[in-house]
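Quick note —
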Amino acid sequence: MHTLETVAAQLTVVLSPLLTGLLLVAIYRGAAYLRHLADHLKVRTVREAADWAIAQAAALARTVVVALNQDVVNAAKRQGRWTPELARQVKAEAVAQIQSLLTREARRILADLTGDLATYLGTLVEAEVATAPNRRRGGGETAARAGSRP
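Predicted structure written out below.
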């Protein structure tokens, strides 16, 4: 029995550092994996936030362009008052309305992504005008297109 205890004690002395080393390697690898996972989740979260802000801006652009076409553009055309200057004013109004309706977080994200929020929103307005039902029915020149001419 004495020999068995001696062998067990010697094995403990020999195996203890080895098991400690293996445990440290496992902890190190686990921490590296967790850092990688956190980075992946952060990128995914940033991408999802960007997609959310872009979708919010696009939806607002659609709504604002439809409203301005109904309220301002079509009336001005019926009255013969539609000019390139009025078109620029309507586009500026559309951009201002979208900016005011965007959430603070969406404005921050879009400004970070684009560097120039107003220009980005103006581009969204122009894109929306190009696909607006008025445009597809051959309703003539719309606010953003007329406003984009020199």
